């Protein structure tokens, strides 16, 4: 089995100022292509430490993936150390220079000499484009082993891995194939889900494995298959998916990279329905769940963050007496919010949230975590009450997921 | 300076199934007592890998903190490997046996032989009580170096560190102290910032180090000081902060744990100003930046995600002719959005975004990344144009940061 070591460079990790999420992300990706990670090492931003890390990793692993220590400021000495390690010179790479020049020109920003220096690469480096930033990735081969150097900024590193490194590692090492299939569920807890599919799970073929991955009110089921014939493993997994789906159909919103909001957006487009949102406790996050994805303008007409009662009354048209009599966090208020935003935006569907996200705002009868949500369409308006926990950010996220799931069920579950 | 290495044992980390939060937590705690972490290593649950990790760590560090590989199941071979490393035997420790017996008795649970074996410790181990679980901590001394073995469950490890290890490390090593200070900037790139403060940086005292930590249009500057008199190092750092601040004052929104939106919220409260937001391309994310933090209701009246032109016209009151003549992504439209949301919400300040976040929506004259933002108050309304990149999520986040920064400058920079 091909062995890999992940070498992260950065004092900010050693000082405990940031979590090393890069190591986990890379490990999970390598696992998917059948490469075994045998070591994570985090070293300081010094030549001595980086060189020691490289030399040790070279002994243990066939692939060394390096992150961090690339950037325009002078504390970055990774490239010089790589030159020393490979016994080569730093040379200005024309393609890298064109890329960094384009990066600055397209943004109308002045380019400094330190930025130009980002195009200086060890002469044995294969240049890997980084469309997300200015520090390129580098691919090296030494005695049949592969070394890859990438910037430490997570979304830049992920871009380089996905657009170049993973594919080329598979080609280089002819790794056996692993096939993953993710079934994405919402609205059912992990242990209940496990009970529903117990018999099916116990009868899975030897080469297929199942994992439960829960987060914020949703559980992803991951089926992992191993084999040498990718198409055969894929077919085998699809057969198992066909068996398990009828058992949990109403909880399944999609597969693989499907996102709940994207899946629901697709349903709305299919059903030719438009959406309007009135948010109080979720404060814009619910709208953001939809708008962070391209294509949301096809069905989302608008959203109002009615944070103050004044806005609820004057802009959204909630009756003053409703708020005075029942409070802003109440069934009556949230029903008016959903119904009124639907009319205000001339949309087919209105949804609304009003709750106490915390840590402040609790009353004797309404503790932190008291959340009302509502749904309105041409058939009427209804509301649901949830009692969540004490963490503000978790409450915001779980509320959004629960309400989006309600919208999903009202729209028929999923696009088939 | 006393050097430490953190050695985490666990295949679940190497497979990417969990994030190694223990390494970060321990690093941050050691940093506070002036012990420099020089390496994080994660190794597999095998004797060979653990032994190699111990031998390497012994060469580099004065303190080796080990987590994981302790527990009742048979895959835990850490203790046997520690015996091999120290060349000692495993013996049943009476105090540890009493503790584990008590743990089970007090919970009314049956104790198995594998649980009794948890009281078997290498004979040179000092026993460290673990009141949160059944696997005890162990403290070893070898040639003036300290080795500590702890369970991998985070709250058990943290209990052992806080109740025993940190205090005993300080006593054993008479450690010097490290002081950190973070200066948080926005609105200037890393390389430009470096140019502004180059002379100051080059003249920093030997015992102070500077690092640049960039993300989404913001750069954090970290000054790290080392010395034996904590108060003196703190004063020395403050003197350097006083020197550098005038050079970059307008970019600095806060220090240490300050968050940009929280800092701007504080300014608004101090200035007794209320805020209203009209968002198009940021789609709710801008409001979420403020509302994710408790206390935002003190200054935020509301936000409108005017995603469709219909909402821009009918709810926000942007003139139909403006959108027809100049387009939704235009200076004229964003000016009306900021001005109108201010009036609609009866707020002191209105801010607005309209842009092409991507990947779709580009026109020949307006490429993806074309972003207009506007600011309105009692003195009038003005707009700014930015040309950002191709990544939708990055564009949304950077737009929010740039506009929050503009709001910050308009409100006086920062609370002083």
UniProtKB/TrEMBL annotation, chains A, B:
InterPro entries, per the entry: CinA, CinA-like_C, CinA_C, CinA_KH, Competence-induced_CinA, MoaB/Mog-like_dom_sf, MoaB/Mog_dom
Gene3D superfamilies registered for this protein in UniProt: 3.30.70.2860, CinA-like, MoaB/Mog-like domain
Listed SUPFAM superfamilies: CinA-like, Molybdenum cofactor biosynthesis proteins
Domain MoaB/Mog: 5-171
UniProt-listed NCBIfam families: cinA_nterm, molyb_syn, PncC_domain, PRK00549.1
Similarity field: Belongs to the CinA family.
The protein, known as: CinA-like protein
Native species: Raineya orbicola
